[in-house]
Amino acid sequence: MPAIRIEHLTKTFGPVRALDGLDLEVEDHSIFGFLGPNGAGKTTTIRLLAGLAHPTSGQAWIAGLPIGQDQRAARQIGYLPEEPAFYPFLSPLEYLDHIGRLFSLPALQRQKRTAELLELTGLTQVRKRRIGGFSRGMRQRLGLAQALLNQPRVLLLDEPVSALDPLGRKEILDLVESLRGQCTIFMSTHILADVERVCDTVGIIHRGRLLVKANQGELLQRYALPVLEVEVDHGQMPALEAWLKELAAQPWVISSTLEQNIARIIVGTVETDRQKLLAAALQAGLALRRFEVVRPSLEDVFLQLVNHAEEKP
Q1: Is the pLDDT of residue 38 over 90?
Q2: Are residues 157 and 190 in the same domain?
Q3: Which of 168, 186, 216 is the last residue of a domain?
Q4: Are 197 and 91 within one domain?
Q5: Within its chain, how far is the Cα of 262 from the centroid?
Q6: Most confident of 22-36, 214-228, 269-283
Q7: Are residues 282 and 178 in the same domain?
Q8: Minimal CA–CA distance to 267: which of 304, 238, 235, 302?
Q9: Which site in 124, 157, 281, 299 is 20 to 30 Å from 271, CA atoms measured?
């Protein structure tokens, strides 16, 4: 039985169709990365799974229990919104005890579980401080602790690291990774590097529809096209930008991106197109610091699939 099953889920807000017949299954005990551009339907899906909104049509199940029809489904879920809100006058000890009471946990179980989660999230030393003085990273860790308090079978994380600095992102991702095998984690994000790091399975959503779902290795094998990187000195940046614009007209170039002085170019066939690309670079007068075939990334697959979906009517 999958941990999450979604069938023909649709959600409209007036004329806007946020979800358009979404079908999805998430295996038990997997860490599932739910990817999509802004407005693709990621948060809407999570809110429906959490029981915080009702679908226009369709149905979803958590651990075989229908959401919105069986109160037992809600007890199988832990939920961390993108911006968790707290009572600022409470301490982490008081707040987690309050959440435990909402789940009707006995006093001894609340105390034991609270101590475990404060230790897991690194908040033991600040357990009696007021939450109002916490940093964004500390609040996010406390939010993760409250989402885990009821030992959920499914943990829903909505953009858990989007507003954190690099250190805060690492701390939260380390926590997520430490939960592997303990529950099913459904994590929405638009930060592809984070998905590559912690997720074993990936789903890409666009305009409320699922484009693809597979494990990372399968995605790269099925959809990744050859990638060539061209690196030049910083002084040649204007020439590199002009060359990429000219290159876009070539039928053998799928797409290209530029980050500082490095161009990543996706081509159709690496064996033949590598020679064409090198000749074109030299003809443009670029003094190359580096020219090599690189391993395609999840970002390359994501951009390819979303750009293809954008081209459809």
Answers
A1: no
A2: yes
A3: 216
A4: yes
A5: 25
A6: 22-36
A7: no
A8: 304
A9: 299
Return left, alpha or beta for 288; rule: phi > 0 is left, psi -120 to 50 is alpha, else beta: beta
Q: Is 311 part of a structural domain of the chain?
A: no
Residue 48, domain extent? 4-216
Question: What digits encode the pLDDT tens for the residues 190-230?
Answer: 888 888 889 999 999 999 999 999 888 888 777 767 788 99
Can you tell me the distance from the alpha carbon of 161 to that of 83, in angstroms, rounded to the nearest whole number? 10
Higher confidence at residue 64 or residue 297? 64
Stated length of the chain: 313
User: What total number of domains does the chain contain?
Assistant: 2
> 158 and 270 share a domain?
no
On whether both 284 and 193 belong to a single domain, the answer is no
Amino acid at 285: G
- Same domain for 48 and 173? yes
Retrieve residue 305's tokens.
């699939």
Q: Rounded to the nearest 5°, which phi and psi values hold at 114?
A: -60, -45
Q: What is the pTM of this model?
A: 0.81
Check whether residue 197 and residue 61 sit in a common domain: yes
